[in-house]
Amino acid sequence: MAAPSVVPVAYQGNSTSAVLPEWLNKGDNAWQMVSATLVGLQGMPGLVILYAGLVKKKWALNSAFMALYAFAAVMPCWVLWAYKMSFGHRLFPFWGKAGPAVSQDFLIPQAILPSTNHYKQNGDLETAAVQPFYPMASMVFFQYAFAAVTVMLLAGSLLGRMNIKAWMAFVPLWLTFSYTVGAFSVWGGGFLFHWGIMDYSGGYVVHLASGTAGFTAAYWVGPRLKEDREEFPPNNLLLALAGAGILWMGWSGFNGGDPFAANVDSSLAVLNTHICAATSLLVWTCWDVYFFKKPSVIGAIQGMITGLVCITPAAGLVQGWAALTMGIASGSIPWYTMMSLSKKVPLLLKVDDTLGILHTHAISGILGGALTGLLAHPKLCNMFLPVTNSRGAFYGGTGGVQFLKQLVGASFIIGWNVIATSVILLVIRVFLPLRMSDEELVIGDDAAHGEEAYALAGQGERDRSTRNAATPASVETQGP
């Protein structure tokens, strides 16, 4: 295919001529880069400091590092092979061919690249709705941020006991053999896309996958020490709130960037995102007050997250009243599974999911996907996904079939992540222990990294002689 034509443009104040492709839309490209950066900020520093604040003090550094490492480790894997496995040419109906995304191809828009993702249905060729008017490099960066955040979310199930070396091996393997499958199947032109599964911005690809894989990994890695599992107070709730705030505001890019254009749909997606998140936070808080007599800051954070996750598969596909309805559901159903069912169901009691990622991401992701199948507006569906007669069941027609499709799509994501995550960890276990030793678990950060998060008097400084005017008596009065 011929390269896109360009027109010469002389930049003011610079004698050097430059070329500007005539297909380039600067506004769309600017919004995509901003959206990608917002999603990246959700991970670094958002999730890094959220995890650091929510865990016990002795695990603050290790938890932050697990997230930080994942954010960095995904990038080279993504540009060398994983991006093309997610959004490239078809290898299998659920998987793309591996290849680098750092060649000259990154200079031209995704839509101009040759594609084997075309699919014949009802006499028409269908392709992904994505035909952006900006370089492929913008798309690679945007989708990298999604992939990185997915692995970082998964880490929330494993905090406080996983061997850091095993985690370092796990990240690239899980990205390659699990994340890319879901991304290609639902977004990259795979069989779920052509079947009409609706996942606007990652309710399935990101959240259901991370929640399922995190819970599965927690099963294989094993639980924290009994004393940690029974008493795991957050060491810094204000830090956790800062991370949660970055996560919430970053979701404007997470959902607003997925029309791949600065258009009407992106504005609707951003507004719906915040409607659902705020409603969910308030509903969760009301349940806490009703049953426990006090509003919980941690509960408010959980409610915020479940709202953000629930609206994600539907953000640009539903009207405002539907986003409000989804917020009520996401503040109630995950609250019930986390605060009630998790204390009754044997499997949930056995598996130590440190931050409840199963509830906040997997259950909320399924809930959002199912509600998308009920509430997706036909006209909004046609703006995003060019599959004939896509609509929610609420609008009649083929909507009932769509609802069932959403459930089947969720089943595939769950099944693949359970199997792939289990196989990856069982292979790693042959070479590395998945869990730290009990001696290391007692110590925490210092055993894992030789460092500690806080240099407080009597709690972090190694050389007491460097403490200003600190006497033995004054040190003893500092408290735990």
From TrEMBL:
Which Gene3D superfamilies does UniProt cross-reference here?
Ammonium transporter AmtB like domains
List the molecular function annotations (GO) for this entry.
Answer: ammonium channel activity
**GO cellular component terms given for this protein:** plasma membrane
Q: Which Pfam families match?
A: Ammonium_transp
Q: Which PROSITE patterns match?
A: AMMONIUM_TRANSP
Membrane topology for this entry? Multi-pass membrane protein
Instruction: List the subcellular locations.
Output: Cell membrane; Membrane
Region named Disordered: 456-480
Q: Where is the composition biased (Polar residues)?
A: 467-480
Where does the source fall among the domains of life? Eukaryota
Record-annotated membrane-spanning stretches: 30-52, 64-83, 141-159, 171-197, 203-222, 234-251, 271-290, 297-315, 321-342, 354-376, 413-432
Signal peptide extent: none
Looking up SUPFAM superfamilies in the UniProt record yields: Ammonium transporter
Q: Which UniProt keywords apply?
A: Ammonia transport, Membrane, Transmembrane, Transmembrane helix, Transport
Give every Ammonium transporter AmtB-like domain span: 30-454
The keyword Transmembrane is assigned to this record: yes
NCBIfam families per record? amt (TIGR00836)
What family name appears in the similarity comment?
Belongs to the ammonia transporter channel (TC 1.A.11.2) family.
Query: Under which name does UniProt file this protein?
Result: Ammonium transporter
Q: What is the lineage of its organism?
A: Eukaryota, Viridiplantae, Streptophyta, Embryophyta, Tracheophyta
